[in-house]
Amino acid sequence: MRLSSRTRPVLCLTLGLALFAPLLGGCTPEAKPPAASPTPAGSTEHSIDDQLATVAEAWGIDQPPDVAQVRVVRAAESPGVQAECLTESGFPSEVTPDGTGYSISSTSGSDESLALAVYTCAAMYPIDPTQTGALTEAQKELAYRYLSEDLVSCLGSNGYVISEIPSRQTFIETYDTGAWNPYAELISRGESPPEDLFAECPANPPLSLIYGD
Hints:
The protein is α+β, with helices and mostly antiparallel strands. Helix content is 40%, strand content 6%. The protein has 2 domains: 10-131, no CATH class; 137-211.
């Protein structure tokens, strides 16, 4: 992966939650957030080894180093932990406005050193494997309520009207093959919401809502 010094990659987590990241060119995967998760609801098949293998592949690391694990973290705390770890490694980072990922504010240094730092932090603080499988129907319903009620209302109060909201059942049935998100409608209409809108009206449900604190 080649990054210029002006690139500010946004990294997303490896979760069953379908993340929408329209800012800054979308997600650069810490590990690729799948539109469709191949694991059954509640599955723990995304083991820590699987997480790290995906990070290594995404960042072009052919021979991942051995890294001592510090502790396993919950999904809701992972973005902050990873951002802090990368900052301490020389790559200032911050949690994205919606709290579902983190961005690297400076990519000074070689691509290889950044890739190694991302991998090392992921290995030191992997996500609890029980929170990386496909969402249950109950979790998808929580996501639907946030997107169709809270987010649509927030966008409306800022002058952005969402005209097409799928039914709860349609949302759940199509979630793993292409989750609906209100921001996608705005972008498809050619609108360009300002960056501060994503802070006021987060594009994704809070991780704590889906996975607990």
